[in-house]
Amino acid sequence: MASTSIIESGTFIEEECWLRQPGETGAAYTAFCLYRDYGGSRSVRKVLKDQELPSSRSGIWLAWSQRYAWVLRAEKYDAHLDKIRLEENEKALRQRQAKHLELSKKMLDLVDKRLDKLDPDELSQGTILDWMKNCSQIETDILKDEEKEKGTLKQLEISFFEDFKGV
After folding, report:
1. Of 12, 15, 33, 67, which one is least surrounded by beta carbons within 10 A?
2. Can you spell out the DSSP letters for 9-61?
3. In which domain, by residue range, is 55 found?
4. Which helix (H) or strand (E) holds 5?
5. Which helix or strand (DSSP H or E) is residue 147 part of?
């Protein structure tokens, strides 16, 4: 007698379907967990071999796989893990960006204090041009990152201090 799958019987619980399903025996669920946790290249045969279980178990495992929708449940579990990984990666990226912004602000404060003490007559034209290039490149990089995040375009504006006229 062929058993009805949990999907056909209507007992399938889709939300967090990688958890134990109604009517699923402990042995079937334990086998599913081994299958589920094997990863993207999973198959009943591979799991049995990796777990050093007798190949004679493949019949019951294949029956459980059909009845309890292992392939679908494992795919949904993989998607769930991918979503968690993406969220964690995005959170880490935001934290790094915030840290870089914090450091940049501190450095700009130091530069600002130092610039207030500089005598423009003591700066060479080459030094000023180097500073301009570096500032422009940093700002361009920051704007590119912002454009990627927001999908907006911004224009870089460069202002020259009156003190630097004629240098």
Report:
1. 15
2. HT----TTTTSPPTT--HHHHHHHHHHHTT-TT--HHHHHHHTT--GGGHHHH
3. 6-74
4. none
5. helix 125-150
On whether residue 167 sits in a domain, the answer given is no
Kindly state whether residue 164 falls inside one of the protein's structural domains: no
Whether residue 89 is contained in a domain is answered as no
Instruction: Tell me the pLDDT tens digit for each residue of 110-158.
Output: 877 887 888 878 888 888 888 888 888 887 887 777 777 776 555 555 5
**Within a domain: residue 32?**
yes
Stated as kind and residue range, the H or E segment containing 48 is helix 44-50
Query: What would the mean pLDDT of 14-31 be, rounded to a whole number?
Result: 93
Structure tokens at 13: 């619980």
Largest CA distance in the chain: 96
Our count of domains for the chain comes to 1
